[in-house]
Amino acid sequence: MVDKPPPSTLPGLASARQAGKPFTVSEYNHPAPNPYQAECVPMLAAFAACQDWDGVWLFAYSHRTGANALDHYDSFFDIAANPSKWGFMPAGTALFRDGRASRESQAIRGVDWLRRGEDELAALHAKYGSNLMRAAVYDYERVMGLSRTTDGEGFVWTANPAGWTWTAGGDGALLTAGGTDALILVTKGKPDVESRNRFAVVTATPLDGKALAESKRLLVAVCARCENTDMRFSADLRTVGRNWGKGPVRVEIPRMEIPLPGRGWKCRALKPDGTGGADVALTVKEDSSMHLPVSAKDGTMWYLLTRD
Length: 308
What we know:
Blueprint: H1 9-15, E1 24-28, H2 40-50, E2 55-58, H3 83-86, H4 89-96, H5 118-128, H6 140-144, E3 154-160, E4 163-170, E5 173-179, H7 180-187, E6 199-206, E7 217-223, E8 226-229, E9 246-251, E10 256-259, E11 266-270, E12 276-279, E13 283-284, E14 290-294, E15 302-306
Parallel strand pairs: 1-2
Antiparallel strand pairs: 3-4, 4-5, 5-6, 6-7, 7-15, 8-9, 10-14, 11-12, 11-15, 13-14
C-alpha cells in the first residue's frame, strides 16, 4: 500500500467517518502471502492515531483451535504465527494507544450529516443512492502531501525520485516504510541488493516511556518479506495456491545502517522469545554519531538498544 496511495484502503475508511462520532475499524489486514504485509500494523496504527480513531482490530488471530502451537501460517488473514504482524505490535501500540502520533495532523475528517439540512441530504441521496458514505469525498493530494507538525510529529506519505516512503510518529515512536531505494534517503543505509521486492519496514519504540531523544531503552524492529520455509509462489508471484510451505517462518532483513539518537548506545539482537542474544557492534561515524547496522546474519528482526 505504501506505493499506491490513490486506491488504498486507509483513506477510504477515513472518509466514511461521521464527524463528531466515535469511529472504529473492526476488521483490517494486509493478507499473506503479500510480500509487503509487514507494513500492515505500523501503517494502520499511525494512520488511525493521526485520524483520532477510537479503536482498530486486526482480522483475524486464527480460524482454528490450538493456534498458539503453530510454527507457520497457512491462511491469508490469520496472524497467530505471523512475525511480520506480531513483530510490530510494540511500535503499533506506541503509535496508537499511547498517543504518540499527533492528532493535529488529521487530514481526512468525517462528514457531519446531522448538521446538513433535509434538502441537502435529499440531494445527496439522489446522487449517491442508499450509500451516503460515498459522499464523503477526500483529497488524495492532501493525504500524500501531509507535512509534519511544528513539534515533528504526525506522518508523511510522499514520493521521491527513489520511490514511495511512509514515515510516521513523533517523540515517542518512529516508523519508516517503503522501497529500499527510498529508505536509503531516510536511514542513510545500504539497501540489500538481493532483496526480491526491495522493500522494508523499520520502527523504533522507546520501552521506558520516554521520548526517543531521551530514551535509554529502544526496541528497533526491521522486516521486509515474511514467508514460510519452502513456500512456493506461482510464476507470476500472484499466489501460492496450496503451497504454503512449513515452519519455521522466515523473515528477510535488508542490509542497512539506522542512525540512532544521541550516543552511548549498546545493542543486543533479541531471540524469538524476546530474550537477549548476541551483542551487535554499532558503527560510529566521523561526526561521532552512532548507527545500528542490521543484516540477516544477526538472525533476528528485533534489536534492543540500551544506554546508561
